[in-house]
Amino acid sequence: MDQSSFFTLGQRVHSSTDPRRVGTVKYVGNVEGYSGTWVGVDWDNEGDGKHDGSINGVQYFQARSQKSASFVRAHNLSPGISLLQALKLRYQSHSTKQDEDEMYVLSASNKRVSVQLLGKDKIEDKLSRFEELKSASISYLGVSSLGGPAELGAAVPNLKELDLTGNLISDWKDIGTICEQLPHLVALNLSNNLMIQNIIGLPLLKGICVLVLNSTGINWSQVEILEHSLPMIEELHLMGNSISTIKPTSSSSVQGFDSLRLLNLEDNCLAEWNEILKLSQLKSLEQLYLNKNKLTCIFYPDKNKIQELLSNHESCDESYLPFQNLRCLLLGSNKISDLASIDSLNSFPQLIDIRLSDNLVADPARGGLPRFVLIARLAKVEMLNGSEITARERKESEIRYVRLVMSKLLDNPEESKRLHPRFVELKNFYGIEDEMPSVGAAGPQKMGSGLLSITLKCVGPSIGEKLPLTKKLPATTTVGKLKALCESFFKLKSLKLKLFLQEKGSPLPMLLDDEMASLMDIGIGIESTILVDEES
What we know:
Strand order of the largest sheet: 11-13-14-15-16-17-18-19-20-21-22
Structural class: alpha/beta
Low-confidence stretches: 436-449
Shape: globular
Oligomer: single chain
């Protein structure tokens, strides 16, 4: 029997030699110039194929990209195995004598020394007793079906967590059957399974609390349909689905999801903050992940916008504030560049954990704000870019920030208030007086330009090992002057230097490239560390 008859259009398959090479059947038939029957596959990963579905000028099917399609003989494809078969393959297959012979380390004399896993038999025995299995991962094993009726529930009745990443499942009805047969299931990972668009007949998935749908091709309209089947959902992960719009079905904002605490929309195509505001009425939402999108700005809704969001809302509660319980907001790797976006984060009632890394506004190397300025502008934040803000760091950052603003905008208080909303509040809180000019032997000086204790540390490869030096320098010292001082301190006359400010909590030191900027302009505080490097 011709094996190509086993495959139908739209069927999910994987390479018989590589279960991670997954695709969709788009053509079954003859190919001009080649004998026999061929199966045309559009592979999930661009580059796994050789063309776009055409050969010698004939278009047999339209692939997703120029290099995602190929024609394959049927015997080189696998239609997959059942979920129960995969469980047995993963958890009931014992290591062979050959496997054990391959487990070794090399001794000092380059001889093989066999490795024995302590407790291996006990572990294999426990895992093979399916009735005790509570967590199972069968990723990339080519699962395409469930097996016989009720077999799954009888085999693993106590399963609570199931990871099906990278298999061949595509029908939502199969998902419903899995959840019905596994009544204790609370966490299900379907990442990298290309699910069909039509969600019909999905039963109530009343036990599912965590659902991972990363890279499944799902859109927000389907998410709205799924909501009716997920009354207990607490975590929903939707990474990598090219979602660009949030479309509520019956109102201006998303309803339902009463238990949803974490929503992960990372690595999508969301560009407008107005789309995110449609999530603002999710009353249990505590964590919102928006890394790797295309957002350019953030703002907290005013009264008019709130009224717009509440229009046509079935259970309208005007006392509820937008994002009232949101505590964690991840915005890394977007396109945010304006200060107003940073300052608007103070309006979120409970927000204490923020990620802003890899945005223009938070990248000092591209003219963005250094960490201490971000901390000072964000009044309530306790965690910034994954690093905890201690009480000491906050105090030092806020004082540095006030002195930085004073050095730049001393003669224009209205401008400082507009550009630095927290400036007056912080200045009064720390009792920092306006800098009054005083006349000394060297002429007019500022009281604020006192001495700063700075540690200088050499890191250049040809500078050699030199002990760090701690020096007290005037706050008015420029970067250019500091370079000259470093040449003198470390006897580096023949080298061209560059300096970096190393700040606690920042992943990379900040290049000090403006030779006319003073230490006060840069915002360098007491006990800062300057790295002394050399031009390459």
